[in-house]
UniProtKB/TrEMBL annotation:
A GO BP entry: lipid catabolic process
Source organism, top-level taxon: Eukaryota
Source organism of the structure: Centaurea solstitialis
GO MF assignments: hydrolase activity, acting on ester bonds
Protein name: GDSL esterase/lipase
Annotated keywords: Hydrolase, Lipid degradation, Lipid metabolism, Signal
Family (UniProt): Belongs to the 'GDSL' lipolytic enzyme family.
Residues spanning the signal sequence: 1-21
Pfam families: Lipase_GDSL
SUPFAM superfamilies: SGNH hydrolase
Length: 394
């Protein structure tokens, strides 16, 4: 009887806290990190697409990675997902493709998996739309990247393996304390503003953005149906200021694509608010990457950067004529990667990715809303709280 009374008192106090905030902060830690997105966080999934050009498993990529290994990350070193994993005390999420054929990989799956794929987008055909002049590699066939729909399908396979390994209740508990990182949308916008395609003839920018969010919503809901409760969603950055875009505009930023990137980010935030109202047991941290990246561009020396226009690695104007691949004629790389915002014609350096991950993890509401990842890890919604302490009130 005393235990039951304690349970009711504890639950009452917790519900009182919930009346003041949408989250209750308890002593929790992240159980796993499951990663969805594009080349900004691809750890090497595209290595397994041998006919795809959207691969980075060649030098000079990885020059600052342990053992100078070119893993398939579009970076001189670690990407933002790697840094985030470190922040929450987890190992780097391995590429799903490296595990999918390994029947003994379930223990690795528990701590997290990355499904991210370079060139991918919200739309299935995005990987086939964009070419090198728009800032992403050209993909000439249907297996050039894994779109977000396919990534979510792969996650459903992982979910089933977790249920087999941990049991239904164990998998539910594990996934409710895991982080689900989503970084997607840049390639879709690159595709829309690529004049080689006729997307702008089919849709107005507003219609296209609405289509992006309407396609994204059911995918997030499907992830929720498969146990996802804590989402880390990163908005689109100042993509009109990447070296590839500057070379098309006399070294200046593409203001049109930046304007519509902001509009997409606004729509994305509205979508998250809408999902929270429909799915009360989710919590999320949204990272205003555009604002954080723009702050670096406007105040580079504050962050230790001296070069925010040209890529560190590449060839031609602003080192943005081609990707950072050693076998391309004329490809070079800078000696001081830490003072460059961009590693290649569209991707940030390891240093920039580390800065972004640090802000995402513990930054203020200027850049992370409604909470940062550090707070998200500790958050528990009221439904989970009730389930967790139901044992005390039986």
């Amino acid at each position: 009887m005393a235990t039951s009374t304690f349970g009711w008192v504890f639950l009452s106090c917790a519900l009182l806290l919930l009346s003041r905030s949408s989250n209750v902060v308890l002593c929790q830690s992240a159980s796993g990190l499951y990663v969805f997105g594009d080349s900004l966080i691809d750890p090497g999934n595209n290595n397994y697409l041998l006919q795809s050009y959207a691969r980075a498993n060649f030098p000079f990529n990885g020059i600052d990675f342990p053992n100078k290994e070119h893993t398939g990350r579009f970076s001189n070193g670690k990407n933002a997902a790697d840094f985030l994993a470190e922040k929450v005390g987890l190992p780097w999420a391995p590429p799903y493709q490296s595990l999918s054929k390994n029947p003994n990989a379930t223990s690795v799956v528990v701590t997290g998996v990355s499904f991210a794929s370079g060139g991918s987008g919200i739309f299935n055909g995005t990987g086939n739309w964009v070419n090198e002049t728009s800032g992403i590699f050209n993909v000439t066939d249907d297996i050039g990247s894994f779109p977000l729909t396919t990534q979510v399908e792969y996650y459903s396979v992982v979910h089933d393996r977790l249920v087999q390994q941990l049991g239904s209740a164990g998998a539910e508990s594990h996934l409710s304390k895991s982080l689900f990182l989503i970084v997607i949308g840049s390639n879709d916008l690159f595709a829309y503003f690529n004049k080689a395609y006729n997307l702008s003839q089919q849709y107005t920018p507003h219609q296209y953005i609405d289509l992006m969010t309407s396609n994204l919503k059911p995918l997030i809901k499907k992830m929720h149906g498969l146990g996802a409760r804590k989402f880390v969603v990163i908005g689109v950055g100042v993509i009109g200021c990447c070296p590839a875009q500057r070379t098309l505009n006399n070294t200046e930023c593409n203001t049109d694509i930046n304007y519509w990137s902001v509009k997409y980010n606004d729509a994305l935030q509205s979508l998250l608010t809408e999902l929270k109202s429909e799915l009360s047991d989710i919590n999320y941290s949204y990272f205003h990457l555009y604002d954080a990246m723009n702050d670096i561009i406007q105040h580079p020396q504050t962050y230790g950067f001296t070069e925010i226009k040209a890529a560190c690695c590449g060839s031609g104007d602003l080192n943005a004529a081609m990707g950072c691949l050693e076998y391309y004629p004329g490809t070079t790389h800078c000696s001081n990667r830490k003072n460059h915002l961009f590693w290649d014609f569209v991707h940030p350096t390891e240093t920039a990715s580390g800065i972004f991950a640090g802000i995402l993890y513990s930054g203020s509401t200027q850049f992370t809303t409604p909470i940062n990842v550090k707070e998200l890890v500790k958050s528990m919604d009221v439904n989970t709280l009730i389930r967790s302490f139901s044992v005390f009130i039986k």
